[in-house]
Amino acid sequence: MRIRAEYSIGPELRFLSNLDTMHMMERALRRAKIPFALSEGFNPHIRLSMGTVLPVGLWGKKEYFDLELQQPMPPGELCEALNKVLPAGAHIVQAREIERNAPSLMKAVNCAAYGFILQMSQEDISRICQNILNAEKLLISSRGKKKGVDKDLRKGIYNIDIQPYEEFFCLMIWVGAGEPLNIRYDEIVDLLQQQGVPPQAILDVFREGNYIRIDEELYSPLER
Questions:
Q1: Does 2-107 carry CATH code 3.40.50.1000?
Q2: Number of H-type helices and E-type strands within the chain
């Protein structure tokens, strides 16, 4: 049986690395006595795939992992059992069974949404949004494998929205993830600063979710 689960990582756990998060989930699976499957070989490990990496320093609302089980278990029971043993700040939101031959999260997820809490006027944020959406090119020095090479972010920016957030505003940006164009959150930070956002105006950054984008429509990895 193969399970896909949606979980959240709160601000208090924002400095966990991807490896730390995986170890946290593995410990929780053991403590909760989940009937997980093990790989073969001399050093068997839990068949757990954490999906796209949540950058260190960010918290996430809709993160995902895939898990193979040795025997069937209702997804709701799995969520309840894990939430009893996970530390504060980590929470399994929901889970469902998926096909054994379903594409991995790393292959399926091709869009991510990031939220930037800004201490700026709505008028200034709206102006910056329009400048980004109206630009033909948005060249930023790549922070990925090709460091220092100019990277055009425009084709990978799918949508922008401004939402109230307490006494501030949250700038939501949906961007490409994985193939064919991967946009990192720190490249978006560089873009915002290039567009006139002062570094001290960015109060917080989080990943709102990971999505599968098909023909401009966004789907949760639990839907597809």
A1: no
A2: 5, 11
Where are the chain's structural domains?
A: 2-107, 110-219
CA–CA separation, 214 vs 127, rounded Å?
29
CATH architecture of 110-219: 2-Layer Sandwich (3.30)
pTM of this prediction? 0.93
Tokens of 13: 């756990």
Joined tokens for residue 90: 């980590």
Fold matches, 2-107 and 110-219: yes
Q: Considering only CA atoms, which of 46, 33, 35, 32 is closest in space to residue 83?
A: 32
SS3 at position 142: coil
Range list of β-strands (E), 71-216: 90-98, 111-118, 139-141, 150-152, 157-165, 168-176, 202-214
In tens, the pLDDT along 1-40 reads 999 999 999 999 999 999 999 999 999 999 999 999 998 8
Q: Is 74 exposed, middle or buried (0-12, 13-18, 19+ CB in 10 A)?
A: exposed
Q: Is the dihedral of CA 118, 151, 214, 159 positive or negative?
A: positive
Cα distance between residue 131 and residue 134, in whole Å:
5
Strand partners, 165: 168
